[in-house]
């Protein structure tokens, strides 16, 4: 499994398009959105634009890395027979799923750190040391939820259908989760839905720390629940795909 993780990370680092959208794009988008913003608090929130979008763009970069890249790669590997070839090795099914999740989450780390560095260097964001560490760690750990979703979609969809399904999930979760704009800018019905989405809980981990507190138990529980559902679904789809093979 360790060998497969190393291989997946190497493949991702060689993909220039993947690196642009998962590593370079989020900090660039952060500068576009928050670059000219003042330090006034966002209506209905205690955070200003620089603080809020530092977390949302870090989560967006992690979401791009673990979801967009993972699902398409797995669907293509199934079609080309690479997954069937791996079944002939000593690698167990759970090892394949875990390797995909771990490698995707590892690649997401540079994006998270780069957004935080840009926020500190360009926008002058200043936090306590424990807050920087907590935000980085929470954002990285939370990305495993969406890495599991990427694996599940990769086994659920065919090579032709995986991209539109992934894009629909990506933009839907990002918009309703408050990654593109604060939830206070959305209608009340959308805010009610967003409270139970994994992206909202994911972003809330960092914003709670920025406000000087700890992540809410509800948000942690929501992420844990989605992780179990997505990982369980990925494992079930893997076994189903094995029986077909």
Automatic annotation (TrEMBL):
The keyword Ribonucleoprotein does not apply. It comes from Streptomyces mooreae. It is found in: Membrane. Residues 49-232 form the ABC-2 type transporter transmembrane domain. Its main location: membrane. Keywords: Antibiotic resistance, Membrane, Transmembrane, Transmembrane helix. InterPro entries: ABC2_TM, ABC_2_transport, T7SS_ABC-Transporter. This is ABC transporter permease. The keyword Transmembrane helix applies. The chain crosses the membrane at residues 18-37, 49-68, 97-120, 132-158, 165-183, 220-238. It is a multi-pass membrane protein.
